[in-house]
Specification:
This protein has 78 residues and is α+β, with helices and mostly antiparallel strands. Helix content is 28%, strand content 18%. The strands form 2 sheets. Strands 1-2 form a two-stranded antiparallel sheet. Strands 3-4 form a two-stranded antiparallel ribbon. The protein is globular, with a radius of gyration of 11 Å. Bound molecules: zinc ion (ZN). The site of zinc ion has 7 residues, from helix 2.
């Protein structure tokens, strides 16, 4: 709810799940352009739930962040 990036239309192709690290053991939804930006710039990404971290692992290892899932379903379901 506090993420200003949610103003744009989100499609599934624009989202990827990335392991956020060792802290919460969740995969978060992140807009793909943010992932590309991170890959190029080497900076952190911001998840739908507002989680900010520097991705450094393969996605799919952990369950989806419930906050990200809720936000994503809201966006997708309109
Ligand atoms: Zn999340």
């Amino acid at each position: 709810m506090s993420n200003p990036d949610l103003g744009t239309t989100l499609e599934q192709e624009q989202l990827e799940q990335i392991d956020q690290g060792d802290h919460e053991r969740y995969s978060h939804y992140v807009k793909k352009d943010k992932i590309v930006e991170s890959a190029v710039m080497g900076g952190a990404v911001i998840a739908l739930c507002g989680k900010v971290w520097v991705p450094n692992r393969d996605p799919g290892k952990f369950p989806v962040c419930p906050d990200c899932q809720k936000i994503y379903e809201t966006l997708k379901g309109d």
